[in-house]
Design goal:
The protein is of the alpha+beta class. It contains eleven helices and 15 strands. The chain folds into two domains: 89 residues, no CATH class; 145 residues, no CATH class.
């Protein structure tokens, strides 16, 4: 709780404010309402010195486990093409990953902050960041990031939810953009994961630092090879601890592997559920599911072939074995 307060996720509510707060939320002590009387979406429940608030889920994979679809929604195909054109528009790009993006968006109005909260040791706290149950947090995140990027030219950046991409033909300008963005992020108590910084600048990436995306683009024949050791790393997942490290590698700032990474996340969730509760070891069948999926004959790398002669833009994503995964735009036979 102290760490959350230090990070600005929660703040104490003064005792004079608690009266206003409690007048707006019914309180149930001891037992919660039964199945026939479920919580409303904004109810505070007190049990001893602790409490919890029943709010609508925002972005919680555990509660949406039965609703997540591994297929790529049609609306996101355009994002794939935009990522491709952004890469080819500039000589250099830089991708940044926000740490717990939905936790970083501040709730501006004090009145809105008072709508969500909890009790701890006779002290009331309220949430100051939007991830904690605000129903429109995806829109709040988008608005916050657009405001964050307002000083920069729209031609030099691209946003796909919480993924930020910067681009420029000049390495110096790109570094200035990156430094300026990080300074604005720090002013808002937002942080990035330095281990997931991804750039096409020479010497910016170290070997093995980007286990999912290793961008190798040959401009002479417009061939982008996306090297990946992710499947190989999956074969080493014998315990819950190693599985956690593997899941943290599912990073796709350009949005090209949304369908693939979502399928892997679902497999990781199944592996955690089936793990031995005493030893923490994974089932052999779950490890095999991570290392090879149905109809996949090559598990090492992917190739993205682009058509530079077509002004409309096109891209085809293949495995090196030749299986087409995604195609969009005008593609030559």
């Amino acid at each position: 709780l102290k760490a959350f307060e230090k990070s600005g996720y929660v703040r104490p509510v003064h005792k004079h404010q608690v009266r206003y707060w409690l007048n707006h939320f019914p309180i149930y002590k001891n037992k919660a309402p039964g199945p026939t009387k479920p919580y409303p979406t904004d109810v505070l429940h007190v049990s001893g010195d602790r409490s919890s608030m029943a709010v609508r889920p925002v972005f919680d994979g555990s509660t949406l486990a039965g609703l997540i679809d591994a297929s790529l929604p049609p609306g996101l195909l355009q994002g794939v093409v935009q990522s491709l054109s952004f890469l080819r528009r500039y000589k250099h790009i830089w991708c940044l990953d926000l740490v717990q993006a939905f936790l970083q968006v501040e709730i501006d109005l004090r009145e809105d902050q008072c709508c969500l909260g909890f009790w701890w040791n006779q002290q009331a706290f309220c949430f100051t960041r939007c991830c904690f149950g605000v129903p429109d947090s995806p829109f709040a995140l988008a608005d916050s990031l657009l405001d964050l990027m307002s000083p920069f030219s729209t031609a030099n950046y691209r946003l796909l939810m919480d993924d930020i991409q910067l681009g420029s033909d000049s390495p110096v300008v790109l570094m200035q953009l990156r430094d300026g963005l990080k300074s604005r992020l720090q002013c808002r108590l937002m942080s990035t994961n330095s281990k997931k910084d991804l750039s096409t600048l020479p010497g910016s990436s170290t070997s093995g630092s980007h286990p999912l995306l290793g961008l190798l683009w040959r401009s002479d024949d417009d061939l982008l090879i996306v090297g990946s050791r992710l499947r190989h790393k999956a074969s080493e997942c014998t315990s819950l601890r190693k599985l956690k490290g593997f899941a943290n590698c599912l990073f796709d700032p350009l949005g090209w592997f949304l369908e693939w990474s979502m399928r892997l996340r679902l497999l990781c969730r199944a592996a955690r559920a089936n793990a031995n509760s005493e030893t923490g070891h994974l089932q052999l069948a779950d490890v095999k599911a991570l290392t090879a999926s149905e109809d996949e004959t090559h598990r090492s790398s992917l190739c993205l072939l682009t058509d530079s002669s077509d002004l409309a833009g096109a891209g085809v994503l293949y495995t090196l074995h030749g299986r087409r995964l995604i195609s969009h735009g005008y593609v030559h036979a």
